[in-house]
Amino acid sequence: MVTRLEAGDPARIGRYRLLGQLGAGGMGRVLLGVGPDGRLVAIKQVHAHLVTERDFLPRFRREVQTSARVSGAYTAAVVDFDVDSESPWLASVFVPGVPLDRAVEQYGPLGSEQIRTLAVGLASALQSIHGAGLIHRDLKPGNVILAEDGPRVIDFGIARLVDERSDLTHTGSIIGSPAFMSPEQAQSEPLTPAGDVFSLGSVLVMASAGASPFAGNSMPHVLYKIVNTDPDLSALPPEIRELVVPCLNRDPAARPTPAQILDFLGSLPPQQQPWPLAVHRAIYEQSRELSALVSDPEATQIPGTDQSRVPEPPGADFDRRVGQFLVASQAAETQRRRRLLAGALAVVVILVGAVIGGVYAFGGSDGSASAGPNPLAGLNLTALRSLDMCAVMKDPLVPSLGQWTTSPASQQWGRCSGQAGGYEFDLDVQRTAAYRNSGRTVNGVPVLEPTGPVDGGCGRALTPATIDPQFGITLTVKSGKSADQRCVVADEALGRLVTDVEHGPRLADVRNSLAHHDPCALVDPDETKLSIGDKVRGTPNLLHSCDWVGTNTLTVAFEHTKPFASPAHPIHIDFGGGNVVDADGAELNGTVCVRRGVYRTVADDDVEAVTVQVTTPTAGIGTAQAGKCLTAQTTLNHILDDLPAVMR
C-alpha cells in the first residue's frame, strides 16, 4: 500500500512529515503524511511539468477551493493545501479502509443490510458534493472506501464545477470509468448531478452482485450496453432491485435525487461493524501497520503489505455524526417513503428544468434555494499567510472618500494601514475569538463584529475558510467622527474588500519567502517532549507564530524585520552529549530565553527571521535554568535546517 519515497524527495510537505507514496497518476502522485497532531493525511502533489502549463494553476486553484467546501460524514475532507508552492498540493484526511472493489473481490459481495448502509453513505456524500457545486464524474468502487464506521467517497481529481466548461468535457471526450458511467457521460453529453446518481446505482449493483450491471468484454461493448440495453439485475435481492432501478433510468430527469434516496432508505440502526467480519479484520491490520509506520520516524513503507496493489487514497472528514442528520428520521415510515419516491419519480420529469436550473444557480442538486458559496472559502492559513494586504488596499476601499492621503504601508506580514478622507483603515489577518457572527453577509462572506468596544474605531471581520482556530480578515476604521459614521464607512468598505481579497494578491517572491511557511509544522513533537510536554500540539497564535503550551511554553514566530545583532551570551554551559549552550545572567535567572536566526536577506537589506522563545512558569537560579535556552537553540537550529535552502 505504501512504497518508499524517491531519492531527493522532501522529508516534509507543509506541516506534514512524509511516510511514503500511496500512488501516482497523470496529474501527480499521492503521498502519505502525518501532521503534528499525529493525524494521517493523503497528499496529492502535482507534477512539476503541469505547473508551467498555461491556465493550469488557475484551474487547479478553483478545483481545490471548491473541493475544500465539501463537507459531510461520508466524503474525504480537504484539510490543507498550498497552490502557490513550487509543487502545488492538497491534503485530505486518511483513515484505514478497504476499497469497495477489493473488498468484493477478496471477501465477496455485501449483504442487503450492508448495501443499505453503503447506499446511505453514497447518497449523503453526493448530497454534500452536489451542494458545493461539484459533480464527482467518477463514482466507482475504487473510489469508495469501506472504513470502520461507514463508507467514504474519495478522489475529486476530475470533478469540476457544475457550471464550468473545461477542456476536459468538450464534445467527444470521455471522463470516468466506463463500467460505471451514465448514458449521457458515455455519449459525451453535458453532465448534471443526475449522472452521479446513475453511477451510484451501478456501484450498488456491483457491491451486491459482484459485477457491473453493464459488464462487457471491451470498453466499446460496455458503453454500447450502458446506452442501449437494460441493466442486468438478475442476481439482486428484490429490496436492492427496488432501490437501484430508479437510479439506473436512462433518462436523467427520471432519476431520484440523493435526498429522495435518503428518504426512501430511512434511518440506519446503530452499528458497531457495518461490513463483513473479514473486512473489519483487514481494516484492523491496516490500522496496526499504519500505527507502526507513524511511530517509526525512519520508516517509509509498511512491512507485509502487497506493493503490487496501490489502492486509491482513502479519506474521511471530522464530523462523522453529522451525516446521520442527513437521513430521514424513522425506519417505521419506510413504506410511506417508498410511495413518496414513486410519486416523486412520476413528477420529476415536469420539475427537472427547475431542478437543473437550481443546480446551476445555487450549486446544489435538490432544488433547495440557498445562499451562494463563500468566495473566500479557499483561503486557509497557507493562503492567508501569502496575502499581500497592502496590495489588497492598492485602491481606496471607499471610493467616495477619494484617493489615499497616506498610502497603505505595512510593518508586518498580514497587516496594512492607510488613510483616506480623514479615516484610518487598518487591515489585519488574525484570530477572531473576540468577534461574533453578526448574521449578515457581504457577497456571500459572513461578517463578524467585535464582542467588545474597539478603541477609537469600528471593527468588522470577514470569515474565509473554516479553520481551527478560526482566523479572519479584520478591518478597523478610526477617526474623530462619530462611532456610527465610522461603522457606516467600515460596512461600505467590506464589499470592495471581499472582491480584492478574492482575487488573491500575493506577496512578492512568496514561493521563496518565509511568509507562507507554517511555523506549527516545523517543530517535531519529539523535540518538545522533554522540555514542553508529551504530545503537546502547536496552536497558531498570530498569523506567523505558533505556541506549544505545556510544562513550559514554546513560541515560534516568523517575521520580516530589520537586521539585528545577536546578543552576547558570556556563560558557556555543557550539558554533555554534545548539548552546549551559551547564556547570560538574565536568561539564567529569568523566565524567558529567546534565540533568533536569519533565514534570508531581502530588499533594502531587511531580513526574514525565525524567533524561538521558551518561557518557564517561574524564575530560577543557576545553570539548571539554561535548559530553556538549550531548547530554544536546538529548536531554532532544526527549523532553519528544515526550511528550503536559500542564499542567506
From TrEMBL:
Its EC number is 2.7.11.1. Pfam families: Pkinase. PROSITE patterns: PROTEIN_KINASE_ATP, PROTEIN_KINASE_DOM, PROTEIN_KINASE_ST. The lineage of its organism: Bacteria, Bacillati, Actinomycetota, Actinomycetes, Mycobacteriales. The keyword Nucleotidyltransferase does not apply. Residues 16-276 form the Protein kinase domain. It is an enzyme of class 2 (transferase). Residues 294-316 are annotated as: Disordered. This is Serine/threonine-protein kinase. GO terms for molecular function: protein serine/threonine kinase activity. The chain crosses the membrane at residues 340-363. ATP binds at K44. The keyword Membrane applies. Keywords: ATP-binding, Kinase, Membrane, Nucleotide-binding, Transferase, Transmembrane, Transmembrane helix. SUPFAM superfamilies: Protein kinase-like (PK-like).
